């Protein structure tokens, strides 16, 4: 469920001419022009919030763009933009734009706090540029439904089953959530489709002086990248789609897309528990030789009596089985986090739910004062604006919920019941891009990257996206987790950087091995009383949820 970076037009033009597969501009507006209207003016100023970011000379600006591109003189959005200037300006190619996923994942905060971060290996040749998409992060207006995410939001608790769901009460909660979003967020909700974000991206590309876009998107960021490449095939030089969402399924078959994702998380849990059985030290001793049995026993015990979490002073509420499943799902996003998941389960098995509670709070983006950041609101409203969910068919959602409970014994809450809110959503973006997702033969070949056991964007979806795009190359990573470049292996990093810098694609059929090991956290944290552990884990994997 998630959980997201130029210049000198003349030099860029020369470099692009040397790259294989770069198409000539199509008739009409030249590649350097934005889609509609003039490029926004960007006035940069220093904005780093940490010593590392200040040393990297992070700069920020605001781009003013039409809320509705069909009414360019009407209401405007103000997009927050940040960049880390290239460290080798004499050999600078241009800008690398990035998106960390979600949808709803911000980019500006990431650069302001970490400098180039994941993209340090590309920062010598590129300015690293991120922006908070419309409705997100520091951009204005920003979506916020002002609800308690744990009791009212899209993934609210408790998670119902076919045995205990009160349909009327659940439907009333879903209607209340939709009404809250509609009441608080107004006109922007009809203009947050991926196509409009792609138009914004095209305007920002022009604003920084790049003739063609260089882009790296993770998770939902691959939908943005595939949309941009399909809408503007003559305006990009290189596009990396990392942890690829099957864009046609995402738009036109979202219930099946989410079911496939849920199956991916069940597979990830099985692989984690198998790894635990093989390496008890890495698993902090959880479950001994039968961690799969111990996991289900822990859930059953928490169902009978929630586990105390007094050691987590920020939020000492006892931990339920739903909480354990939520924490598990969030920590299966990256193999780097398996050791933390094992430790949290070991603590919970010993009667201390503090670590689980800390990770649940991180998932819901709970603030110190007990309110919630609107991360999940943005995920829901942006996807709802363009996905083709069935309308007025409550029975389909109840049936899917019952089937998910039978098919996905740990994570059924991701598929079916939670999707009822989509059936009620009244606001859709008329300018959404419906496809086809296709890269013409004359355009640069897109590079699609995926791990074989990615729980959030399963590998078969990446293979299907490559087939649909046509002019695309798949780079396979044999391993676990969500997000490859900068987080998985030197092989992936080298292949992606060769492509982004010089246009060199990896050979067809290339498979990279994952370098990430399963190990216990060092040093082993005793508790999460100040939230530092959850913050440290969040820093490991900045990729958005879906």
Automatic annotation (TrEMBL):
Pfam families: Abhydrolase_1, Abhydrolase_4. Coiled coil: none annotated. Transmembrane segments: none annotated. Residues 1-25 form the signal peptide. Residues 424-512 form the Peptidase S33 tripeptidyl aminopeptidase-like C-terminal domain. InterPro entries: AB_hydrolase_1, AB_hydrolase_fold, Pept_S33_TAP-like_C, Serine_prot/Carboxylest_S33. Gene3D superfamilies: alpha/beta hydrolase. Keywords: Hydrolase, Signal. GO terms for molecular function: hydrolase activity. Residues 104-281 form the AB hydrolase-1 domain. Belongs to the peptidase S33 family. This is Alpha/beta fold hydrolase.
């Amino acid at each position: 469920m998630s959980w997201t970076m130029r210049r000198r037009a003349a030099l860029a033009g020369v470099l692009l001419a040397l790259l294989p597969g770069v198409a000539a501009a199509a008739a009409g507006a030249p590649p350097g022009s934005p889609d509609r209207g003039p490029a926004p003016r960007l006035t940069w100023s220093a904005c780093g919030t940490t010593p590392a970011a200040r040393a990297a000379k992070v700069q920020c600006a605001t781009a003013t763009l039409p809320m509705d591109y069909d009414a360019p003189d009407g209401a405007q959005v103000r997009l927050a933009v940040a960049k880390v200037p290239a460290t080798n300006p004499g050999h600078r190619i241009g800008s690398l734009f990035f998106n960390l996923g979600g949808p709803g994942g911000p980019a500006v905060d990431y650069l302001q706090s970490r400098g180039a971060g994941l993209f340090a290996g590309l920062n010598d040749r590129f300015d690293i540029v991120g922006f908070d998409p419309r409705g997100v992060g520091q951009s204005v207006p920003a979506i916020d439904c002002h609800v308690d995410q744990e009791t009212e939001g899209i993934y609210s608790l408790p998670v119902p089953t076919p045995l205990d769901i009160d349909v009327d009460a659940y439907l009333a909660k879903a209607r209340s959530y939709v009404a809250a979003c509609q009441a608080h967020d107004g006109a922007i909700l009809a203009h947050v489709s991926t196509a409009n974000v792609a138009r914004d991206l095209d305007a920002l590309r022009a604003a920084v002086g790049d003739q063609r876009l260089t882009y790296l998107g993770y998770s939902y960021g691959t939908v943005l990248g595939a949309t941009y490449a399909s809408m503007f095939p003559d305006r990009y030089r290189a596009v990396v789609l990392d942890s690829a969402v099957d864009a046609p399924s995402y738009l036109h078959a979202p219930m099946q897309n989410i079911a496939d994702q849920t199956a991916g998380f069940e597979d990830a849990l099985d692989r984690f528990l198998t790894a635990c059985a093989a390496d008890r030290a890495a698993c902090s001793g959880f479950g001994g030789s039968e961690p799969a049995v111990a996991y289900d026993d822990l859930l059953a015990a928490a169902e009978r009596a929630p586990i105390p979490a007094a050691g987590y002073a920020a939020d000492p509420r006892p931990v339920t089985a739903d909480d354990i499943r939520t924490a598990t799902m969030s920590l299966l996003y990256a193999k780097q986090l398996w050791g933390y998941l094992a430790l949290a389960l070991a603590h919970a098995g010993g009667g201390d739910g503090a670590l689980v509670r800390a990770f649940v709070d991180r998932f819901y983006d709970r603030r110190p004062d007990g309110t919630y950041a609107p991360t999940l609101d943005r995920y829901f409203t942006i996807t709802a604006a363009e996905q083709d969910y069935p309308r007025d068919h409550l029975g389909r959602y109840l049936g899917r919920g019952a089937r998910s409970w039978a098919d996905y014994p740990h994570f059924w809450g991701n598929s079916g019941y939670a999707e009822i809110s989509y059936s009620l959503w009244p606001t859709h973006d008329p300018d959404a891009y419906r496809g086809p997702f296709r890269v013409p033969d004359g355009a640069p070949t897109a590079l699609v990257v995926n791990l074989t056991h990615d729980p959030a964007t399963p590998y078969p979806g990446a293979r299907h996206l490559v087939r649909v795009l046509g002019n695309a190359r798949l780079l396979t990573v044999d391993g676990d987790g969500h997000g490859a470049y900068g987080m998985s292996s030197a092989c992936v990093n080298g292949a992606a950087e060769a492509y982004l810098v010089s246009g060199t694609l990896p050979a067809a059929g290339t498979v990279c091995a994952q370098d990430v090991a399963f190990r216990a956290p060092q040093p082993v944290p005793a508790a999460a009383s100040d939230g530092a552990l959850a913050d440290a884990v969040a820093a490991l994997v900045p990729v958005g949820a879906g």
